[in-house]
Design a protein that fits this description.
Shape: elongated
CATH architecture of the largest domain: 2-Layer Sandwich
Oligomer: single chain
Number of strands: 16
Bound molecules: histidyl-adenosine monophosphate
Distance between the termini: 56 Å
Strand order of the largest sheet: 1-5-6-11-10-9-7-8
Helix content: 25-40%
Radius of gyration: 27 Å
CATH superfamily of the largest domain: Bira Bifunctional Protein, Domain 2
Number of domains: 2
Structural class: alpha+beta
């Protein structure tokens, strides 16, 4: 048998402690934002029935699902996103739940995509959804929470922009050009590919979707729209975001359509201003998803915010080592086995006061102890030698200021 590779399967990720420090920083901002904006946490099983997740051909996510037959021939799938699962959970308890729901989750999602910068085959996705609210303030709240989280992580307003549009508005513009609503789903899917494939291929997709040459030209013309004042929902969205204090993080962009077919109204996607990365987060209004899986009609708004792109962006803006935060806790070490009981007793007493202690596991030379304490980013260090136990006292060294403080040994 050949040796096993030490690499994880392609597109999957391991989290070594330095990666975990970034993940903690990102997740903390997600959780704090959820709390601050008054959302309740939920979670679900990561495996779903394939039927719930699979959608119409043409949608990328539908084609990227990891699916399998279990030992009883059930056709199952790993969740590629949280939204169908959320719809299922809401539908199951629709009679008992009190709407509007404001629910948040951090869910590991799996997509068999080409692994590129910012896209993996497995990622953690923060979801913020408001179910059962028609007011555009729902959109404003979820986007506001995501903007807050980005700043909490350490990015500045100028580092990112949320591009906002509305499928309803785009639909109205298409309709006014004689492209009727029955063809919009196809048109949206084609136009969403702009920038990702040549316009000639998109034109071919539009013609395949039943558009005439003239309608195709009109569809491209509509994509140059810069004025959204004819859309009441977009006007209200921008006005309310201004009251909330983050309108400067937004920009109207008709080309934001989103690849998922369930969106019905406002849609948005956040990108880094330098244009180096793929989307940081995306979402929108999806008023028909519950009915499409057999639930009662309920309007909904939400977003998905992955951990991959934002972590890469944070590393590039703040430095790859910046995740760990300030040094913390106390390292406790000892010279010989004779000082070990005193070191253990000191560690226990510090821990009982809630202090984080990294206790050395064996006797060490002071030089080695202090260099490890610096490497592990301890804030303070206490090294106990025979003289200290004899005196019944040791010195706590502040590793930043080099100041010392005496402490009693037991
Ligand atoms: P999505 O645009 O497919 O939307 O994904 C949302 C975010 O998840 C992306 O902007 C990106 O941050 C992250 N993401 C997606 N795929 C990958 C990947 N392969 N690797 C790394 N990150 C990824 C949705 O999933 C919708 N369900 C969001 C939503 C929630 N809409 C309403 N509620």
């Amino acid at each position: 048998m050949s040796a096993l590779s030490f690499e994880p399967p392609r597109g999957m990720r391991d989290f070594y402690p330095e990666d975990m420090a970034w993940r903690d920083r990102v997740f903390s901002a997600f959780r704090e934002a959820g709390d601050l904006f008054g959302f309740e946490r939920y979670d679900s099983c990561p495996v779903e029935s394939y039927e719930l997740l699979a959608r119409k051909a043409g949608e990328e996510v539908g084609e990227q699902i990891y699916h399998f037959l279990d030992k009883s021939d059930r056709h199952l799938a790993l969740r590629a996103e949280m939204t169908p699962t959320l719809a299922r959970m809401v539908a199951q308890r629709q009679k008992e739940l009190r709407f509007p729901l404001k629910w948040t989750a951090i869910a590991q999602c799996f997509r068999y995509e080409r692994s590129t910068k910012g896209r993996k085959r497995e990622h953690f996705q923060w979801n913020m959804d408001i179910i059962g609210e028609e007011s555009v303030l729902a959109e404003v709240e979820v986007v506001g929470a995501a903007v807050w989280a980005l700043e909490r992580m350490g990015l500045r307003r100028g580092d990112f922009k949320v591009r906002v549009s509305s499928r309803r508005f785009l639909g109205e513009l298409l309709e006014r050009s004689g492209i009727d609503a029955s063809r919009h789903a196809q048109v949206f899917l084609a136009l969403d590919k702009r920038g990702k494939m040549p316009d000639s291929e998109i034109a071919a997709m539009l013609r395949d979707g039943g558009l005439t040459e003239e309608e195709t030209a009109k569809a491209f013309e509509i994509m140059e729209t810069k004025d959204f004042s004819a859309s009441p929902e977009l006007s209200e969205f921008f006005a309310l975001a201004s009251s909330a204090g983050f309108a400067d993080a937004l920009v109207f962009d008709i080309s934001v359509i989103r690849g998922l077919s369930y969106y019905t109204g406002i849609v948005f996607e956040c990108f880094d201003t330098a244009g180096e990365y793929r989307a940081i987060f995306g979402g929108g209004r999806y008023d028909n998803l519950l009915t499409s899986i057999g639930g009662e009609p309920t309007c909904a708004v939400g977003l998905g915010f992955g951990d991959v792109v934002v972590t890469e962006l944070l590393k590039s803006r703040l430095g790859a080592d910046a995740a760990g935060g300030a040094p913390r806790g106390t390292a406790v070490g000892f010279m010989t086995a004779a000082e070990r009981p005193a070191a253990i007793a000191l560690a226990s007493s510090l821990r009982s006061r809630g202090e984080r202690v990294d206790l050395a596991l064996k006797p060490q030379k002071p030089k080695k102890f202090f260099s490890r304490a610096a490497e592990t980013r301890a804030a303070k260090a206490v090294f106990i030698g025979p003289d200290d136990t004899a005196a019944g006292k040791a010195r706590v060294k502040d590793l930043a200021t080099r100041g010392e403080e005496e402490i009693e040994l037991q």
